[in-house]
Write a structure and sequence with these properties.
- It is a single chain.
- By secondary structure, the chain is an all-alpha fold.
- The chain is 71% helix and 0% strand.
- The chain has 7 helices and no strands.
- α1 (9-25) runs parallel beside α4 and α3 (42-61) runs antiparallel to α7.
- The radius of gyration is 16 Å and the shape is globular.
């Protein structure tokens, strides 16, 4: 449950799926974002930043150990589906008017999809890889990232 050290190609792909849309987003932030971001809860921000560092680290340093398909593979399959939905969410956002309501609105009934989809995907990846450190890191990230998104949603 503690994982096997080694580079994770799958983790690298997940992180690219996470970082690329976020880098593009910096050029297409919704109007008014900076104003609500200035009021972020500092404790949630600490959780978010710590979670980002930990998830990134543990996603990369524990090898994938892919196994033949089994019932355990369902964890990986569900995680991959969530990451694909995360990419589709970004396409939808970039094609929208890029307003705060587009950024924080539901996607396929999922609340705060820009925060919840990747957090749950990384948690499920941690379960699949049997890496408790990744699971705990995703929980820390979720507290901060989802908490901040929830705070922003309430402000708009």
């Amino acid at each position: 449950m503690y994982g096997h050290l080694g580079f994770s190609y799958m983790g690298c792909i997940y992180l690219l799926m996470l970082f690329i849309p976020n880098i593009i987003w910096t050029k297409f932030k919704p109007e008014g974002y900076e104003k609500i971001a200035a009021n972020e809860n500092k404790v949630l921000l600490i959780f978010e930043k710590a979670g980002q560092v930990l998830v990134t680290t543990f996603t990369l340093i524990f090898s994938d150990n892919l196994k033949p398909f089994s019932l355990w593979s369902i964890w990986l399959f569900c995680s991959m589906i969530l990451m694909i939905l995360y990419e589709i969410y970004w396409v939808k956002y970039f094609k929208s008017r890029r307003e705060l309501s587009d950024f924080y609105g539901r996607f396929l009934g999922i609340p705060l999809p820009g925060a919840t989809l990747p957090v749950v995907a990384f948690m499920l990846l941690g379960i699949y890889k049997r890496v408790i450190w990744l699971i705990l890191s995703a929980i820390i990230l979720g507290i901060g990232h989802i908490g901040i998104h929830l705070q922003h949603k309430r402000e708009i």
